[in-house]
Amino acid sequence: MAVRYPDKNVRNALISDASVTQYVGHRVFNQYATPETPLPFIVTRRTATEREQAFTVPVGVPRLTLNLVCYADTFEVARELADAVRRCLDGFGGYFDNTQVKQVAVEEERDELVQLAGSEKPPAFAVEMDLDIWWQET
What does 31-88 look like in DSSP terms, one character per residue? Predict the structure, then answer.
């Protein structure tokens, strides 16, 4: 049985949105991108999963916090990509691979200048977002 998780829904939404793919194509990665990956690209990483519990059963739907970072060689492209991602995901809900995302909310955004690990390239510009995702776990 395939592992079902809402991160796939987020990736599918991003690579299905023309305003995002005009920048990154399908370069949306979970956990890391290789040093050879050309800019711009997106990396996501799950940072928390919260499941509220009553005495005997879970209550409500799980909430996952996903860190999403848009990397680019200029600040303008990083910002434009992040704006496209925000428009695509904020309020998103839907099905993919038999997993239902109830709602996505962009909670925080930060701008950064980073040196990509394992790379001799110049520093990259990044816009980092934290997303809260409520999803149906079956």
Answer: S---TTPPSSEEEEEEEEEE--B-SSSB-S--EEEEEEEEEESSHHHHHHHHHHHHHH
